[in-house]
Write a structure and sequence with these properties.
There is one protein chain. The strands form 17 sheets. The chain has a 6-stranded parallel β-sheet with strand order 2-4-6-9-12-13, covered by helices on one side. 11% of the residues lie in helices and 28% in strands. The protein has 11 helices and 64 strands. It is α/β, with parallel strands linked by helices.
């Protein structure tokens, strides 16, 4: 027999902090390999001169079989023990002639110096590895295609972590190919850290690994895989590389069209002329058999049928009809017969297992960790199970069912794929030394799919402490109650799942009907004859875009259970008719999908029933207004975005858009003197101190809260239809606003560009959302278009100075289409000397827009200094523009602009003064003319003005015969004075 190469146990190398994530597993593999290198594992420190002797190729175990239904014999078999090929290329020689490795094969850390010619290392005879194959950090190895061309099966009887095949940290590897590998019977695959490896997506690892669980394949994102397109010429559609197709376990099934001879069902990987490549299960001296014959011993560790002599030669022990590596509990090895003899009593020679490290628990993260507890009756420590990958639970039973006592405590937590704990079916006592949190000897926490505990044997007890069973979503309350009653322990120390986490165990089915009544109410209906004393109505809103996978109302994460609303009622308090109960739930959310169910229960566990989860969607409400945002604007367009803060936008069928122009009112704006009262700029928030900033933010928050509350109280809905017809723009802007656009937008048009607008003009944009229930409230956003830099420029600026005094005249027209209302013009004067570096003597004069218009766009003013350049700064609502400096010339005849009555900022007072002056002067002239009788020289006025004449100077024409007759006097040849005699000699004169 070949010398036995020491097989090392790797189950203890897993760190206690391992989280089970696949992304770090290949790094864990590297740590393990480095640790084994430092710990003197075979091949780590040996030189070629001190290597064990090579395997004897004459040790052929091929013997005739007495099996009743044997298959065709296998090729000659050479069994080799575990191999660790590292450091030296010569170590590959130990694989020569091996057909089966009854153990593991490691090819790691090669070479330690120099280079290896991997093309010469070919082992076509190797067909089977009973444990696992790991390849790590092999320098300059480009392909694994020719090294093991006939490797057919990796059995995974023992694993590294959860893996039977690992290929990691290979810097030069470009191709992984096992042309005849058809099955990994136990364990899985991890491949990662290979920067040049391609084609991983064309390999079907899930069909390669037969046991339940997860493969972890990590392709390198930087790998250049342009040459790998598809598997050409491969019937399976999968390939290891462009040159090697992938085979599968069932490829040996008969294919009549290809006239392929059917292989024996015990063959694995096909057959050649009736000769199996590898046996599916048991091998009896080169023949594949379904079970070992009665005169042979079963070696479960190697899947072989051995004779007694072969078992002893392999240093195995005889237990009943098995070849075992160690005697089971209650048995001890007889060194003479090599049999496992009974100890003579139940409690004699029990196998006690100590933890790998003192004062540390047995951590069970992976399948390989289970090997530390195989066959143990007494566990001298704590057992912590945290299995995060899918496993075959039958293996838990195989490895853990022998445990009878646990000295510490038992903790099973965060194992999402674990459904049963029947692996502890023989457990009789948990001592609780120490306890979890100094209180619990048994902890079952957050095992999402745990449904079954284990049948408690009589006298099972927790010596110290109680039990904590929490957050196991599918663990039935009835199972928990039954388990607690059967276990002898201190019930007062227990922490058991509350009613909010209770899941019923296979309850009777309650036939539930859920009807939608309105946008806020639904009705539950269920039969009376299926109802017990108490009824619980349960419902919650759900996302309609996500699958609802719960099979009960609590099959969800703990943090999401708060969304379930429960209402507990007694049957006599419900509305009913002759056959059914009714319950109406109100105050629901409109247009929302709800998951609903009803539970009913009586005084004992047998009176329980529950409906299936029913899904309904409430009716739509009148939609709220969308959120409005201007995402882009130009000088003639605004881009509007409509959105919602939540899912309510699904209620919208279309939008109604209205755009109003809000023009400035020059009459009102001209009443303000912007020179005396200029516009105030918005504060620079960056320059605010801490107190001002906090105060401003507080005001903004209060204002925002007020607006939201106002919208909530007075928003349009089916519950408040009176607010649906209120249009705030029509109320506030009817006199000033101009409707520019009215348009209907479909619900998918969440972005719309409003075009053909005026530059820097204020617009009010109003939107309301509508659906089949009606149109909702309005939402308004006010925004200006962008300004244009060139719109406010002045192109006709001229300036001159009178030659005889310091009177300056500046003339410029108002821009034809300014950005917005012009508030003022600032006239800048300066004396510029090119030879001087400054500062320059200057002067600024301010004019309002109205002043400049009234002055016919001419400024005339006297300044107390001499200037040779002038410029204008125009300020409007939209922009500030400064013209170029122009030279001030001497006013000539052409430049003597038409004299215009100037209207300064006190023009109204000057006008009043002039009017009163004219009235006073005119009255004075008339009075002087009257006193000096200048009117006599004007014949037309004499007949209308009173006359006073000295009669002594007049020639009177008196009639001679009639003293009483009126007399007439001719004055100055054209005026006639008429008078008459009166009794009292008084004379009255009247001039015509």
């Amino acid at each position: 027999m070949p010398p036995t190469i020491n097989y090392y146990n790797n189950s203890n190398m897993l760190p206690a902090s391992m989280d089970g994530g696949g992304g770090l597993l290949h790094k864990t593999l590297v740590i393990f390999l480095l640790a084994t290198c430092c710990c003197g594992v075979m091949g780590s420190t040996t030189s070629p001169d001190t290597l064990p002797p090579k395997v004897n190729t004459n040790t052929n175990l091929l013997v005739g079989s007495n099996s009743t239904t044997p298959s065709s014999p296998l090729p000659p078999t050479v069994e080799c023990p575990s191999m660790d090929i590292r450091n030296y290329c010569e170590n590959f020689d130990y694989l020569e002639n091996c057909t089966v490795i009854t153990g593991s094969l490691l090819i790691v850390l090669l070479p330690s110096n120099g280079t290896c010619d991997y093309s010469q290392y070919r082992y076509p005879k190797l067909r089977e590895i009973t444990d696992y194959l790991l390849i790590n950090k092999v320098k300059n190895l480009v392909t694994i295609r020719d090294m093991f061309p006939n490797l057919t099966v990796i059995r995974g009887l023992k694993l590294f972590l959860n893996y039977a095949l690992g290929i990691t940290e290979m810097d030069s590897l470009e191709e992984v190919a096992f042309p005849n590998l058809v099955a990994i019977q136990r364990g899985h695959v991890i491949i990662g850290g290979n920067p040049k490896l391609c084609n991983l997506n064309m390999i079907n690892f899930d069909r390669l690994t037969l046991a339940p669980g997860d493969n972890h394949i990590f392709p390198d994102k930087e790998a250049n895989c342009s040459n790998f397109d598809q598997c050409l010429g491969c019937n399976s559609g999968y390939c290891w590389s462009n040159k090697v197709c992938q085979k599968f376990e069932n490829d040996n099934v008969i294919k009549m069209q290809d006239r392929i001879t059917h292989c024996d069902e015990q063959c694995l990987g096909g057959c050649n002329n009736g000769v199996c490549a590898v046996c599916r299960s048991w091998t009896d001296h080169g023949v594949c058999v379904e079970e070992c014959p009665s005169d042979k011993y079963i070696s479960a560790d190697y899947l072989r049928c051995y004779t007694r002599e072969e078992c002893i030669a392999k240093k195995l022990m005889i237990y009943e009809n098995h070849c075992v590596t160690s005697c089971p509990s209650g048995y001890t090895l007889n060194n003479v017969t090599h049999n496992c003899d009974s100890c003579g009593g139940v409690n004699n020679c029990l196998k006690t297992c100590n933890p790998p490290k003192l004062d540390e628990p047995f951590w069970i993260y992976t399948l390989s960790d289970l090997e530390n507890l195989k066959g143990c009756q007494i566990v001298n420590g704590t057992v912590c199970i945290n299995l995060r990958n899918r496993i075959n639970e039958a293996e838990l039973v195989e490895y853990l069912s022998s445990i009878e006592e646990i000295v510490g405590h038992l903790k099973v937590y965060k194992s999402p794929y674990l459904t049963s704990l029947k692996c502890f079916q023989n457990l009789r006592k948990i001592h609780g030394t120490p306890m979890e949190l100094q209180q619990y000897s048994l902890v079952l926490y957050d095992n999402q799919n745990l449904r079954e505990l284990w049948p408690v044997k009589e006298a099972f007890e927790l010596v110290n402490g109680g039990m904590s069973i929490q957050a196991n979503d599918r663990l039935c309350n009835r199972v928990i109650r039954t388990f607690r009653k059967a276990v002898k322990h201190d019930n007062s120390l227990d922490s058991i799942q509350t009613s909010d986490q209770e899941v019923l165990c296979s309850p009777a089915k309650l036939n539930l009907i859920v009807e939608v009544l309105s946008h806020r109410s639904i009705r539950f209906i269920w039969p009376k004859d299926e109802t017990f004393k108490e009824v619980e109505i349960i419902y919650r809103p759900i996302d309609p875009n996500k699958p609802f996978e719960e099979h009960s109302e609590l099959d969800t994460r703990v943090c999401e259970r708060i969304y379930w609303k429960r209402e507990l009622k007694f049957a006599q308090d419900l509305n009913k008719n002759n056959t059914h109960y009714f319950y109406i739930t109100r105050e629901l959310k409109p247009h929302t999908k709800y998951a609903c169910l009803v539970k009913t229960f009586g005084p004992d566990d047998s009176q329980e029933a529950r409906s299936e989860v029913k899904f309904v969607t409430t009716q739509v409400d009148i939609p709220p207004p969308p959120l409005l945002q201007i995402t882009k604007k130009t000088s003639n367009s605004l881009t509007l975005q409509l959105s919602y803060a939540n899912r309510e936008d699904q209620m919208v069928d279309f939008y109604m858009l209205e755009v109003y122009e809000i023009p400035e009112n020059p009459t009102v704006l001209d009443q303000r003197d912007y020179c005396e009262d200029p516009m105030k700029l918005f504060p620079d928030n960056h320059n605010e101190d801490f107190d001002d900033c906090c105060s401003r933010r507080l005001e903004e928050a209060e204002d925002d809260l007020f607006k939201r509350q106002l919208e909530k109280e007075f928003s349009c809905s089916l519950d408040n239809k009176k607010y649906c017809e209120v249009n705030p723009l029509e109320d506030n802007y009817t006199n000033n606003a101009n409707v520019l656009l009215t348009k209907r937008l479909e619900h998918s048009e969440t972005n719309y560009t409003i075009r053909s607008l005026e530059r820097y003009q204020l617009y009010a944009i109003q939107v309301q959302a509508c659906n089949r229930a009606g149109c909702g409230s309005f939402r308004i956003i006010n925004e200006r278009t962008n300004y244009s830099v060139a719109a406010d420029k002045i192109y006709d600026l001229t300036a001159c100075k009178m030659s005889h005094n310091n009177e300056y005249r500046v003339h410029f027209k108002e821009p034809e289409k300014p950005n917005a209302y012009i508030t003022l013009y600032a006239l800048h004067f300066r004396y510029f000397n090119a030879s001087s570096t400054g500062p320059y003597q200057g002067h600024v004069h301010c004019l309002t827009r109205l002043e400049h218009e009234r002055n016919n766009y001419l400024y005339q003013g006297y300044l107390n200094a001499t200037y040779n350049q002038a410029a204008v700064r125009l300020e409007s609502f939209g922009h500030h523009t400064f013209t170029d400096w122009v030279a001030i010339t001497t006013c000539s005849g052409v430049q003597m602009y038409p004299k215009t009555k100037l209207a300064g900022r006190s023009s109204h007072s000057w006008n009043i003064f002039v009017i009163f002056f004219i009235l006073g002067a005119g009255g004075t002239v008339l009075w002087v003319c009257y006193k000096r009788k200048y009117w006599r020289k004007i014949p037309q006025l004499r007949r209308y003005l009173p006359v006073s004449t000295n009669l002594a100077n007049l020639h009177i024409l008196r009639p001679q015969n009639d003293d009483d007759e009126d007399r007439q006097i001719l004055v100055d040849g054209f005026e006639t004075v008429r008078f008459h005699n009166s009794p009292d000699d008084d004379k009255k004169y009247l001039v015509h």
